[in-house]
């Protein structure tokens, strides 16, 4: 799969074993624990996470990129999963390391991923969701051209607490001012 670039100067590329320390930093905050089905709390966990991204890519069941800055360090992740060829749709997710937050890493990466998904995979609809209390994730969605479509009540459960999720979507023929 090709590398992608953004107008902001970020590179999207496959995950590499050398990215393990960035993955560990990203998964260090408690809220990131909930974003994976197995612990990413040591080097072997980070390498397993990276290997799973490579396996998904090889099987064409998921497409995950490291968003890399000028120094070559992975600053975040953008991914496309749950690709449905019948409906030409997919699910977008993203995260950044704490030090990369507020630098436009996630929106730039999501916009590049969306262009690739529409142009290369021929998808028509991309969806994403975030907890309603995650204002930063909502900003990424809207800055990436994803329109809000509503609230899914009590969709996520972390421990004993349920969270509402705001759903966003972007269509291949949506008019956005940054493509």
TrEMBL record:
One MF term in the entry's GO annotations: protein N-terminal-serine acetyltransferase activity
UniProt cross-references to Pfam families, sorted A to Z: Acetyltransf_3 (PF13302)
Domain named N-acetyltransferase: residues: 22-168
Gene Ontology cellular component annotations, sorted alphabetically: cytoplasm
InterPro entries according to UniProt: Acyl_CoA_acyltransferase, GNAT_dom, Ribosomal_N-acetyltransferase
Residues in coiled coil: none
UniProt keywords, alphabetically: Transferase
This protein's name: GNAT family N-acetyltransferase
């Amino acid at each position: 799969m090709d590398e992608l670039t953004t107008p902001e100067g970020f590179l999207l590329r496959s995950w590499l074993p050398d990215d393990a320390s960035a993955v560990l930093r990203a998964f260090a905050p408690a809220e990131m624990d909930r974003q994976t089905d197995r612990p990413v709390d040591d080097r072997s966990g980070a390498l397993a996470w990276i290997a799973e991204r490579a396996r998904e890519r090889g099987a064409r069941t998921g497409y995950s990129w490291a968003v890399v800055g000028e120094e070559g360090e992975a600053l975040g992740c953008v991914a496309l999963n749950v690709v449905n060829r019948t409906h030409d749709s997919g699910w977008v997710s993203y995260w950044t390391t704490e030090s990369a937050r507020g630098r436009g890493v996630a929106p730039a990466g999501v916009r590049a991923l969306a262009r690739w998904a529409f142009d290369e995979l021929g998808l028509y609809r991309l969806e994403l969701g975030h907890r309603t209390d995650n204002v930063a994730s909502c900003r990424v969605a809207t800055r990436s051209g994803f329109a809000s479509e509503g609230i899914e009540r009590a969709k996520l459960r972390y421990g004993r607490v349920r969270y509402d999720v705001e759903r966003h979507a972007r269509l291949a023929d949506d008019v956005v001012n940054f493509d």
